Here is the input.
Amino acid sequence: MAPIKTPCLGICSTTSVGDVVCRGCKRYAFEVIDWNGYDVEAKSAVLSRIERLNTQILENKLRIFSEPNLKAGLDRFQIPYDELLSPYCWLHNLLKKGHGRMESLEEYGVYALGNYAGMPLPALCEIIENDLLLLSEAHHARYFSPTKFGNKSRP
Here is the structure.
């Protein structure tokens, strides 16, 4: 079995500014720090959560119609992605690292849905990022933050 890739995008805000949720990959600070010590099951659990949250946010705003175009864009910009994860995770990586170099979503096999269709790409990326951070922080608060009943342990 091949080793599990790190979801790191090279935009770590947990180690550089002390965020609880990384603004790049959406791992929690302790997951970034402990990643190399995790076994396959723990790494898979982290990636599964990130995949679910990314997909939940992105599927409601964007539709991927060409995975080959999406992959080509990621390769062109040399943006890492894990082929074992949902293409919506790949799309998140593209938007996070490449949106400033993109002319249109369609070139990358993606189109925006509903009210997001006419929105400028930087504004759409900001909405997506804010939604992902909010959802990730809420998940962290629910499952990992201290509660009035004591501390919950991390995996």
Observations:
- The CA atoms of residues 112 and 119 lie 8 Å apart.
- Residues 121-143 form the longest helix (23 residues).
- The chain has six helices and two strands.
- The longest strand covers residues 62-64.
